Amino acid sequence: MVKWSKTELTIINDIFSHLDYDDIGPKALSRCLIVYPWTQRHFSGFGNLYNAEAIIGNANVAAHGIKVLHGLDRGLKNMDNIVDAYAELSTLHSEKLHVDPDNFKLLSDCITIVLAAKLGKAFTAETQAAFQKFMAVVVSALGKQYH
User: Fold this and answer.
1) Hey, what domains does the chain have and what are their CATH numbers?
2) Binding site: which residues?
3) What would the DSSP string read from start to end of 40-98?
4) What separation in angstroms does the CA of 10 have from each of 16, 17, 71, 74, 112?
5) SS3 category, 147
6) Distance CA 7, CA 124 (A)
7) Where would I find the Globin domain in this sequence?
8) pLDDT tens digits, one per residue of 103-120
C-alpha cells in the first residue's frame, strides 16, 4: 500500500479538479505516438497515423486520449487501493490487447510533460513529485498482471 501525505493528496486532487481532459488527453497520447512510434502498433484501427500532423488531427487518437485520461479518475477515487482499482484494466491490456507494459510509463511521461506545459510555473517541483508518484503507482498497477 502506498502512503500519501496530506500535501500529496491535496496536490493530486487539485490537479484533477482543474484538469482539461479534452485538451491534455489528446495532446498526451498524440505526443506518445509521435515520440515513440512503435506504440502505434496498438492503434492500427485508428486510421491514418503516418505522420505527426495526421496523428494530431486524428479524432480516434483524441477520443482515446480523453478516455485514457479519464481512466486516471479510477486511481484518484481509489487512492488507498490503486492496484485493485486497475486489476481489470491490467488484465485487459496484458491478456487481450497485449500492450507492452513499458508503454504505460511512456504515456505517463507524456501526460506529465503536457500537464507541465499547461500549468507552467504552477507545475512546481513539489507538484511534479506528487503527480509523478501518483502516475508511477498507476503504471505499476496497470503492469501488475504482467508480473
Assistant:
1) 6-146 (1.10.490.10)
2) 64, 93
3) GGGGGGG---SSHHHHHT-HHHHHHHHHHHHHHHHHHHTTT-HHHHTHHHHHIIIIIS-
4) 10, 10, 19, 17, 17
5) coil
6) 13
7) 3-147
8) 889 999 999 999 999 999
Q: What is the pLDDT of residues 21-66, one digit of tens each?
A: 999 999 999 999 999 999 998 888 999 999 999 999 999 999 999 9
Q: Which three cell numbers stand for residue 95?
A: 491478456
d(CA 99, CA 112): 20
| Nine-digit cell string for 92 | 485487459
In whole angstroms, how far apart are CA 45 and each of 42, 49, 56, 96, 131?
8, 10, 16, 15, 31
Contact at 8 Å (CB) between 71 and 77? no
Length of the chain: 147
